[in-house]
Amino acid sequence: MRIPRTIGVPMRAGQELGVYATWHNDSGPDIPVAYWRVALYMAPPSHRRLAVLPAYMDVNIQTNPEENRFNVPPGHFEIGYEFTPPLSGHLVVVTGHLHDYGVLVKLVDAASGRTLVEVKSRRDSLGHVLSIPRKLLAIRGEGLYLKAGHRYRVVGVFDNPTRDTSYGAMANMVGLFTPDHYREWPAVDPADTYYRRDLVDLLANGATDSVIVGGGAPTPERRR
Predict the structure, then answer these.
(1) 3-state class of 99 per DSSP?
(2) pLDDT at residue number 74
(3) Which is more confident, 199 or 159?
């Protein structure tokens, strides 16, 4: 993934990063050796860029990534998670992640019920998700404004055409967020219980080096 040269994620010297990588092998046989390479392009502080942060909005957020899965019954199904951002700012780009039978993932104003942005999946005739597009929100203007302390809900919408429950589904919206006041973003608290659970999970699933990563209330599932 590449981002425009006009934006960037501020980093400090010695900053530790944590990375979750997932993939799915559709080839049939096992792949004996697989690699995932990350290249970070660094710009000096003199090159001023719009400061952005990654935005991750999961419909079933959990500190352990293995616990954020859910089951999709036959028919129409929706699941959502409500949250409030700690700072005001703009979403400048969004995309999503959906498992099979996922129709779309959307961000809703929880107070008014109005849909602010949604991304729809491209599916085959059986409902298998083939791809999900990116949606650029700041081509004309600054993007989608989110207000600190305001209630928002991320919602995943599924349509399971089979008679069987689909197990282990996921749905989330991801993107880039530029806060109004970047330096006011809450600092990581290494003593926080949820942070420590997240770190333990990273170390347990990581193959080599130890790393660090830097929720809201769930809303009930709906089906009709």
Answers:
(1) coil
(2) 97
(3) 159
